[in-house]
Amino acid sequence: MEIKAFFTAVIFAAVFSAQAADENAVLKQELSALPATLPAAQAAPVPVPVAATLVAPAPVQAAPAQAPIYIIEKQAPTYVEDSPIKESKADQLRKTREEVERQTEERIVEKLEADRVRSEQERAVKVMDAFEAKQSPAPAPLAPIPPQTVVEAPQAPLAIAPPPPVIEVKTEAPVLPQEEKIKDHTTVSADAGFISYPSADNVSAGFSGGVSIGRSFGKQLSMDLGFLYSNLDVESANRLPFWDPFRSVWVPSVTEVQQYNVGANLRYRLLEDTTFSPVLGGGLSYTIRNYQWDLIPYSPTVGDAPTSWAVDLGLTIGFDVKLSETFKVSADYRYMMNVAYDLESQYEHSRIFSGPLSQKELEEIGYQVFLVKGTFLF
């Protein structure tokens, strides 16, 4: 709208200027046609002012300035994390030493200040006594007076303020953290349980018992050397049963086996500072077996008493229950497998099969032992 008004005013001004130029030209022609006798004053052309009407352009209004627009963007907070500062043992000892030094210096300063207070009080008493003795006038000479008994009232002693009590602050040096020293123990154990051959159906389970002595290394590892005795019965695989006329039953031929294990066992507690802990381990055993034909009809000691030896390797699982610092109870399950063996003579096989080729010696068969142990720690 302002631009249109501006152009309109310019056009009007141009028109009025052209009209004024035309009027001036006409006026000049009329003046040139006048006679020359006119006075010079009159001959001179009289300028006629031409009023030119100009329309002022409308003021152009500037566009109002727009207010700035601020865009605020909200960003997610950023967290900077760092690992906590952990003081080393040297820093802890240094702080402890500085604390002890500070306490020692405070006690020394307290002693010095208390001694200064007592010295100042004593000096004040001496100075005041000397000043009073100097200020008192000397007595004038008096005429001799007959001696009289004069009773003097006791003079009250000069009151001296007692020194302030010295309060002694007893500070105990902080106890330095000490590392717990892990002590090794000597162990003595008594074992009791039973033995069985799960893969031999003609071998009955028997009693097992023994003792062991060892050493514990720290809180988890221990090793012991032990002796284990076991007794079990084996039904003969080749010898036919006999008829017992007193009981009217068929009685199989039975071999009594006495087994001796001497070996080393390693045990490891899975949990360190707990009363109850599972245990894993293993062992190596030298095994001796003695055989006796004890149920032959009418002959308790028929035949020889063969002996065998074997080397067995086994695994152990179980648990410990620590009842005190010097006693614990354990339960172990051991499964032993044969590594090597030797026989002194041919005797009954351990398992009953239809053919002799499928039979195995007792030494070849794996066996298991369940034991409950009571262990003393020294």
Describe the protein's topology.
Layout: H1 2-32, H2 40-43, H3 89-135, E1 185-196, E2 206-217, E3 221-235, E4 242-244, E5 249-251, E6 254-269, E7 276-293, E8 307-322, E9 327-343, E10 367-377
Antiparallel strand pairs: 1-2, 1-10, 2-3, 3-6, 4-5, 6-7, 7-8, 8-9, 9-10
Task: Please name the defining characteristics of this protein.
single chain, 378 residues, alpha+beta, Porin, 8-stranded antiparallel barrel, two-stranded antiparallel sheet, 3 helices
Enumerate the strands of the largest sheet in spatial order, edge to edge or round the barrel.
1-2-3-6-7-8-9-10
Number of H- or I-type helical stretches: 3
Element string (H = helix, E = strand): HHHEEEEEEEEEE
Main β-sheet description: 8 strands, antiparallel, barrel
| Average pLDDT score | 76
How far apart the termini lie comes to: 114 Å
- Beta strand count: 10
CATH fold-level assignment of the domain at 185-377: Porin
Q: Using the 3D structure, state the CATH architecture of the domain at 185-377.
A: Beta Barrel
The Rg value, from CA coordinates, equals 64 Å
Fraction of residues in helix: 10-25%
C-alpha geometry: flat
